[in-house]
């Protein structure tokens, strides 16, 4: 993989230190969001999905960029106007996006997953930044027009919410990153986490995965741990099924096969016991996450919104 560790013990990605990469990301996003705010708002056009803007950041600074103490780098922004529209659709204002990502240092997450990607989370827990391979970034770019169409038709989608696609060119290497919604805030403990595909072949978590502090289990584990399943009220259940059906149709239309549903469970009784509070007692959590900036930032809030609206399942064969 591209991840490594240098002589000081710091994480590197494609030979760039994590601190230099974090700094470059924040400088680049600050510049690109700022320059975008000077451009008038307009409808998204087909060519907007294929625009790539590029700016050079010499360490001594330039008339467009500030001086910095990293090596020179170039920052590329993919489809800036299209992603501005996506952020707007999700209720994220430009100043909130900037504040979340650039006002405090990004936090590196230790669990990189099987992909060998590097993950960062914004200090307010709103956004995840993930390094992606060239093929993944290229694929996401190709998906953008279809993704745009899907969001317009189905704003309560459970597909990942993409807020920006960027590339840091440093030391002759391209480091591509995507900014997404953070589904699992660090301030709320998830007692169980499942990656569900709806199949049973080789769908049990490995021993290596089970040995982790917060393992991600699979379908066979779910069937064993929660044989009766999870109980939802009927409106919530219908809204969830409808959303999953619509999302699967979209993935099918993109010819994507390798996808799964991430289910994370916070057990309130267990959480109260862990904090020494009698079960069933009203308890104000002093570590409650700050109010979120994104509309429907978690999957269930989106589904609850749909359920409140009285969503019903509508498929073509009804």
UniProtKB/TrEMBL annotation:
SUPFAM superfamilies recorded: SAICAR synthase-like
Instruction: List the Gene3D superfamilies hit by this protein, alphabetically.
Output: 2-Layer Sandwich (3.30.810.10), Phosphatidylinositol Phosphate Kinase II Beta (3.30.800.10)
Instruction: Name the GO cellular-component terms.
Output: cytoplasm; plasma membrane
What range(s) does the PIPK domain occupy?
Answer: 17-318
Its main localization is cytoplasm
**Family annotation (Pfam families):** PIP5K
Q: Which UniProt keywords apply?
A: ATP-binding, Cytoplasm, Kinase, Nucleotide-binding, Transferase
GO BP terms: namely: phosphatidylinositol phosphate biosynthetic process
Give the InterPro entries listed for this entry: PInositol-4-P-4/5-kinase_C_sf, PInositol-4-P-4/5-kinase_core, PInositol-4-P-5-kinase_N, PInositol-4/5-P-5/4-kinase
Q: Which GO terms describe its molecular function?
A: 1-phosphatidylinositol-4-phosphate 5-kinase activity; ATP binding
Indicate where this protein resides in the cell: Cytoplasm
Superkingdom of the source species:
Eukaryota
Q: Which PANTHER family match?
A: PHOSPHATIDYLINOSITOL 4-PHOSPHATE 5-KINASE TYPE-1 ALPHA, PHOSPHATIDYLINOSITOL-4-PHOSPHATE 5-KINASE
Instruction: Give the protein's recorded name.
Output: PI51A kinase
- What is the organism field in this record? Furnarius figulus
Identify the taxonomic lineage of the organism of origin.
Eukaryota, Metazoa, Chordata, Craniata, Vertebrata
Per UniProt, what is the name of the gene that codes for the protein in this document? Answer: Pip5k1a
């Amino acid at each position: 993989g591209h991840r490594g560790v240098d002589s000081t013990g710091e994480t590197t990605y494609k030979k760039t230190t994590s601190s230099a990469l974090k700094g470059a990301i924040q400088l680049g996003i600050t510049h690109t969001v700022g320059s975008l705010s000077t451009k008038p708002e307009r409808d998204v056009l087909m060519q907007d999905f294929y625009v790539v803007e590029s700016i050079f950041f010499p360490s001594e600074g330039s008339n467009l960029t500030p001086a910095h103490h990293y090596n020179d780098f170039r920052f590329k922004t993919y489809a800036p106007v299209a992603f501005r529209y996506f952020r707007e659709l999700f209720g994220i204002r430009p100043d909130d996006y900037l504040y979340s990502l650039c006002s405090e240092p990004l936090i590196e997450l230790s669990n990189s997953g099987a992909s060998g990607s590097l993950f960062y989370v914004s200090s307010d827990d709103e956004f995840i930044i993930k390094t992606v391979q060239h093929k993944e970034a290229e694929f996401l770019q190709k998906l953008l027009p279809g993704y745009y169409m899907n969001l317009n038709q189905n704003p309560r989608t459970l597909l990942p919410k993409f807020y920006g696609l960027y590339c840091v060119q440093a030391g002759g290497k391209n480091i591509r990153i995507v900014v997404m919604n953070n589904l699992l805030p660090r301030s709320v403990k998830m007692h169980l986490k499942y990656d569900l595909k709806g199949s049973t072949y080789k769908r049990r978590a490995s021993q290596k995965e089970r040995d982790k502090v917060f393992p991600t289990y699979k379908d066979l584990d779910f069937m064993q741990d929660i044989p009766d399943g999870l109980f939802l009220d009927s409106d919530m259940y219908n809204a969830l099924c409808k959303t999953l059906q619509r999302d699967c149709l979209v993935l099918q239309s993109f010819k994507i096969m390798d996808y799964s549903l991430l289910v994370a469970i916070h057990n309130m009784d267990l959480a109260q016991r862990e904090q020494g509070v009698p079960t069933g007692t009203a308890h104000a959590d002093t570590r409650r996450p700050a109010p979120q900036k994104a509309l429907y930032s978690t999957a269930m809030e989106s589904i609850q919104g749909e359920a409140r609206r009285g969503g019903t399942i509508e498929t073509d064969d009804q």
